[in-house]
Write a structure and sequence with these properties.
The structure is a single chain. The protein has 129 residues and is an alpha+beta fold. The protein has one domain: Tubulin/FtsZ, C-terminal domain (60s Ribosomal Protein L30, Chain: A), CATH 3.30.1330. It contains four helices and five strands. Strands 1, 2, 3, 4 and 5 form a five-stranded mixed sheet that branches.
């Protein structure tokens, strides 16, 4: 398999109550995938149907969140409509309030997750057009 990058997209997801990092991560992935359209795959790469596209696509997801160990990876990947998937969760994102601004503690439990999606195409599956 010869994987080549086709698309890179970034999304942001926020859980406003309860610090649910899986919910924030799902929203971040959803935000990223609604920002683009991959209509060129059939015409430019010679794919005939969705099965061929699914076999030739890989979506690498990286999620940055304050509590990476709490993210349910399988739930996050369910947001993706097609292709092979892989996920990596790293520390990042944002939690509010922070210790530096705890005077805002009446507004608590907010987490922000950032998702970066890299869509790759298996060039061995591309048809000559």
């Amino acid at each position: 398999m010869r994987w080549k990058r086709y698309l890179v997209e970034v999304g942001t997801g926020i859980d406003l109550h309860g610090e649910d990092v899986t919910n924030a991560a799902r929203k971040a992935v959803r935000d990223a995938i609604t920002s683009h359209s991959m209509i060129g795959l059939r015409d430019i790469l010679g794919f005939q149907n969705m099965q061929e596209i699914n076999e030739a696509l890989k979506v690498d997801v990286t999620i940055a969140t304050p509590y990476p160990e709490k993210v349910n990876k399988e739930e996050v990947l369910k947001v993706l409509p097609e292709g092979r998937t892989a996920i990596k969760v790293v520390e990042g994102g944002l939690r509010f309030p922070t210790p530096a601004n705890k005077e805002h503690s009446s507004v608590g439990g907010i987490v922000v997750a950032i998702a970066v999606l890299v869509v790759l195409v298996d060039m061995d599956k591309v048809k000559a057009i």
